[in-house]
User: Fold this.
Amino acid sequence: MTVVKKYHLLRKDLIKYFYYNKMLSLSDMSKLTHKSLPLVTSAVNNLIEEGYVLEHGLAPSTGGRRGLMFLLNNQKQRYIVAVAVDQIVTQVVIYDLFNNIKIAPEKRELILADTASLIDTFTEFLKDYLSRSGIPLDQILGIGIGMPGFVNAEQGVNHTFFKTKGDINLKKYLTHEIGLPVFLDNDSSLIALAELKFGAGRNLKDVLVVNVGWGTGLGMIVNGSLFRGHSGYAGEFSHIPLSQSNKICSCGKRGCLEVDTSLLVLVDRAKSEMDAGGSSSMEQVYKDTGNLSGDHFLQAAKLGDPLAVSILSDAAFLIGKGMSTLIHIMNPKLIVLSGRGAIAGKILMAPIQQAINEFCIPWLAEQTEIQVSKLASESELLGAATLVMENCNFN
Assistant:
């Protein structure tokens, strides 16, 4: 590796460490990068000249000479586009290098289906948002996209949704159409990445992140890094055959966990219960609109609506049963309940713990902590931003 290439790699690593840690001393950076203090000092001075980094006072006293602290320059006009796609709604936001929102997020209903127009509609939505933002493209580091389906991040393809024309893969297609570097990954993997860098999994080595949403996903952090498996598709938690029904899953198989735990299924069950005369605080919205959103269902559960709580508890028990299997196999330090469903908070915990008590070896279960994410519905967008920071070339 040439000296120039080594310098660019160090420069990239330093910017990423600032992004994740906010403020660092030269000593901190030397330890994080495993590079000598003179080399790090030279690289930081160059970043200061480029306008990426600023001095920010002295480090706290430890008894000796106090070192200088450094952080990213919030006046540096570099931005990240983060996109979170689910089965029904697509969200997009533009962050600065401190993950502050630069341009207000927008949502668009975009139902994922195997149609020729899906990718065109998706692309036009992003291009329109970027155009209206007024930010020059040369100030944007890239676009990170989290999406459901069998996504291979390295190859830039989604084998489930967003089929492109011809041989070009999705990543190359979007990069060409939008004119910016595009990086994509499975939504549950990005949610796990967000929890590792900014959430409950920060500084931990072995963490499982269960994505409770329109599907039921899993992101795995093993030895401090995202675990993808042999061919990039590890974490298909929702297709473990734990369903108590014989319904056919979207994958074509029967008995998958997803057919009894996805938010789509729970909302449909709530509507069926109300159609049959069940009482709920959701009735008025359902009658007025003829529909019921997942967010409304989760909010009703959070506020203690008996019907919503009962339905969500049944699903959480099955998720807990699946988590018992994960604990036996992976022995994680922490399991985080994240994604859209984490809005329901503590309501998930009791039935999950009940299932773990019933199905998991007690002394093994005691070694795994379970938490509800504080990032919740923002986790996928933060993960998408992190994906850009991990892969882009800083210019």
Remarks:
- DSSP finds 14 helices and 15 strands in the chain.
- The chain has a mean pLDDT of 90.
- The chain has three domains: 3-72, 79-190+380-391, 201-374.
- Residues 73 and 106 are 26 Å apart (CA to CA).
